Every structure is written in C-alpha cells, then in structure tokens.
Fold this sequence. Notes:
By secondary structure, this protein is an alpha+beta fold. About 35% of the residues lie in helices and about 10% in strands. The protein is built from 6 helices and 7 strands; from the N terminus they run H-H-E-E-H-E-E-E-E-E-H-H-H. It has helices at about 5-20, 45-55, 105-115, 175-180, 210-240, 245-255; strands spanning about 85, 95, 115-120, 130, 135-140, 145, 155-160. It has a 5-stranded antiparallel beta sheet. The protein has a two-stranded antiparallel sheet with strand order 1-2. A hairpin with an 8-residue loop joins strand 6 (about 145) and strand 7 (about 155-160). Helix 1 (about 5-20) runs antiparallel to helix 5 (about 210-240) and helix 5 (about 210-240) runs antiparallel to helix 6. The longest helix has 29 residues, at about 210-240. The chain is globular, with a radius of gyration of 23 Å. The two termini are about 15 Å apart.
Amino acid sequence: MKTTSFFTAAILFSSLSPALAASDDQCFDFTPMSSVSTYLGATLDYSVADRICCHNHKFAEYKGYLAAPEVDFFGRLDQSVETVFYDSVCGLPLFIAPRNRTFDEFKTESLKHGWPSFRPEEMISENVIIHNDGRMESVCKTHLGHNLPSGGVDRYCIDLVCMAGEPLSPNDERNQIIQNLQQDQIIIATELNTTTYTSSAEQYSGKTGNATAIIISVAVVGLLLAMIAFDATIEEKLIAGDDEEDEKHWSMLQIVMM
C-alpha cells in the first residue's frame, strides 16, 4: 500500500507560504500602540491589530468587523465633521473622511464592502504607499489593506485596526520611526492642515490587487488541509481492515494528490 500523501500536501502548502508572509522589518519592528484596543471608545482586538498590521501582507480583519456591536465604527464618528485617521503604529495621519462626499455615502460604501473604504481625495498621499499589486501600507511599513477600484476610481479597502492610531506624544519611543523617514516627504500630525490640504493621489492609479488570486490561494490551502484530514481518516480505516470500498477511495485519493 502506498504511504499517505501528507508530505506532498506539506510541500504544496509551504510553496504558498512565502507569498503570505510579511517582511521581517514590518512596522520597523514596533507593534501597534496600546490605545488601539479602545479606539473611539470601542473594543478592538489588539492581537488582531498586531497580526494584521505588523505581521502580514495579504490577510485582513474579518469582513464586517467595523459593524460588530463592540466596535460600531460609524456610530462613534461625528457625522458633522471630517475625521482624521492615524497609523496604528507610528501615528502619522493617513486619511481624512468624508471628503467630497457625504457621511452617509462614506458609511454606505464601507458597510457594503465590509471595511472602511476611502477615495483618492481622502488619502494623505505623502504618508501612504500603493504597491503595483494593490497592496497598501504606510511609510511606517504598517500594512493597511488593498486598493480595489470601484466605478473606475481607486477605492482603498482598509483594515480598521491599522488606522486606529493617534498622534504620538513627544516622548514616545515610536518617534524613532518618524526620525528615520524623509522628513520633507511626509506630513506629521502637527503639520496637517485639514482645511488647506489637497491629496495628490491619482483618481485611478492602475495599481490594483488580484483579489481572485488571493482567494484561490486561501482556497487551495483549505483544500489541502481537508485532503490531509480525509487522507488520515481513510488510512486509519484501512489499517483497521475495513472493506474494499475504502480501498477504492484510498486509490482515488492518491491519484488526485499525484
């Protein structure tokens, strides 16, 4: 009898891992600020913030997290003014919203897609990077989300836990991050004038992620794990001396895995 295909599945799984891993110096080796867990009076999961913002380039908080009862993101915003959203690690301003649209439009689009959704006019373009594959991060190397254009215009799908920061205090050790950046090319919180600021972000950058490829990668991993579990179950039955029908299932599984 052939041995289990677990080893084959493990090789395939490991081949996907590099694409899902984050760089070693993400967030410049810092972690999200502790205040993230009580952002706007909400209750955010700090472990999720740490994992998504500083140890990840692909995945996101779960869809609809912004509307969870303990979060209630839009219920905590002042509808009458623009809100500045800050990097959860280094405190740089990232977005001003809603801008050039109503609060209800901002809310409706975000709830429809399941994550806070921003448009080019709302980005602090000096502080945000859109990579060619659509992945977005701040200049502080904090993962933010992905660019998923809608209606022919860039739409930034951003993880709430990564934009739930606040300006740094003068004695915060995270100021080391800011000091390492090109000071003349970024905008720190104290320099941002929301009244006069105009984003230089393109309406359509052409930089967009292949969401289908990401979904397929995750699905393949799930399939492999399911096949491993099925593989082990059948092998146990064969060892126990089950009937010929199980032997047929085993043979078919081996063909699929080859």
